[in-house]
């Protein structure tokens, strides 16, 4: 049984975004997929204080429900993240969550996990959530396998033919990637290369000045720092875990 975790960045559990996400996911084979829907109001989360401790310890020092939420995301086989368009961007709730996970963007913490990015809007802003959210997922190590925005005008969210076509395509990709080990892509490779260079520079500074870096320690402990590509790292990870 594969686990799908859908983080919906809206407090409206029966709103357009939740309905759009559920329309897509509820048609997945129920004997193959377990789906969990998460909403911001279900977790007690504080704002990021900008203390930068997470970059030193690879862990947030604020005591709230963040680790519970993070564990649900990390334990999933496929991660779905979504938001309505608010002022041409994602919701403040979702941005808060991503801010609190900022060290993930320096460690590729999603480790090649398949990610689906969805959004909804009224009449414009079709790309204003999809594009930045996809980039964030990429920097966090997620392999974005599908993106889609549903708009009220034109009325896509009640267009059964459009919804069926979109749902079928996304479901097809989710089923296919659920059967594969974590995958890399050209965007992840570029991200890996850029961050690895930064980690190597950090290593030199640490040796010279004794600076603490949880990010560098994560790269060293996972073995990413020793790999030339993200694909090479993911392959070694599967091999070490007894995969094929």
From TrEMBL:
The keyword Flavoprotein applies. InterPro entries: Flavoprotein-like_sf, FMN_Rdtase-like_dom, ISF_SsuE-like. One of its GO terms (molecular function) is oxidoreductase activity. Residues 3-147 form the NADPH-dependent FMN reductase-like domain. The keyword Flavoprotein applies. Keywords: Flavoprotein, FMN. Gene3D superfamilies: 3.40.50.360. This is NADPH-dependent FMN reductase. It comes from Pilibacter termitis. The lineage of its organism: Bacteria, Bacillati, Bacillota, Bacilli, Lactobacillales.
